[in-house]
């Protein structure tokens, strides 16, 4: 079941604020009165003790006390919200957005929509506008995040365009969430500047990974995919600068019609020249944004590239490179590749088709992007119980 992260879902019962605000969900009895300033009480029974930043009620018959403000009836689409979740409330729009979900393994924060690439399959096309408020908001959210969170993602746009603000953000994560892994998705180009690579290394975050896409072993293919001349050379220099300074790097290779012919050559290039990277993710296509607009030009059925995928994985695996397959349901993979598959799709994007309900591998499979309904592999099928995972 897909999760709706944001939208109109609040009916004001007692209004007060006019500007958006952030708060952490709690349930009765909730924290002591002195700690309630950033807490939003979520309740079913309509009992509303004073002192909370705001109130979300599921009950249909609630009459707030006259001295309370920011009381809202919560729409059914958002009944999944639970204590520990962090939300943004937009009173004037009657909107709410889940920024962080304590029980989710898929918490990522968008820190900018600006980007210096223009990838042909980008699922979140860039927007060149001032969105510094996103980092301001995240700085406000981080103290509300559970310190037991396993991992959070930092994404864009291109986070490295933030420069010093990205460094400050990672440092704040280190101070507030020292046990939480941080995974930054970046195109890597700005790290060709040794000063930026040094600065991010100097934070000494105990569990930081930079995920960088490299779409070929040659410049012309990579530069075409990202629509930026010189990007390949900058990206490779960025990878080298980060690794030279001890920062962990993951390479990401999205498989589509413009990249598939170089997949095996890419694997050999990494095995020969970049074997020191910490992880390589060979990724299926998410059919959103530019990928959706360019669907006819870049779509390729995963069944049609299984031999190349198998060879690329074999090259990397035999070279000692940690390799994974992302964003592929198990039924479209050759059995001997299934052990490399990871359940990588964020839960709010994740979907299963009707065939999946009777599949023997359903509990092990990462499913599909919900957007896969636009173009589905002919390999999607229930796996019989006698076919074990490879």
Can you tell me about this structure?
It is a single chain. This protein is an alpha/beta fold. The chain folds into two domains: 6-96, no CATH class; 108-374, TIM Barrel (Alpha-Beta Barrel), CATH 3.20.20.70. The protein has nine helices and 17 strands. The radius of gyration is 23 Å and the shape is globular. 37% of the residues are buried.
Offer a few descriptive terms:
2 domains; seven-stranded parallel β-sheet; TIM Barrel; eight-stranded mixed β-sheet; 17 strands; alpha/beta
Instruction: Kindly report the oligomeric state of this protein.
Output: single chain
Indicate the low-confidence ranges by residue numbers. none
- Approximate helicity band: 10-25%
Number of structural units classed as domains: 2
Whole-number mean pLDDT: 93
CATH class of the largest domain: Alpha Beta
How is the largest sheet built, in terms of strand order?
Answer: 1-8-7-3-4-5-6-2
What coarse outline follows from CA principal-axis ratios?
A: globular
Cα distance spanning the termini: 27 Å
CATH superfamily assignment of the largest domain?
Aldolase class I
DSSP helical segment count: 9
Q: Which value, in Å, is the CA radius of gyration?
A: 23 Å
- CATH fold label of the largest domain: TIM Barrel
Strand content: 15-25%
Tally of DSSP β-strands? 17
Please summarize the sheet with the most strands.
8 strands, mixed
By secondary-structure content and strand pairing, the structural class works out as: alpha/beta
| Overall CATH architecture of the largest domain | Alpha-Beta Barrel
Please provide the ordered H/E string of secondary-structure elements.
Answer: EEEEEEEEEHEHEHEHHEHEHHHEEE
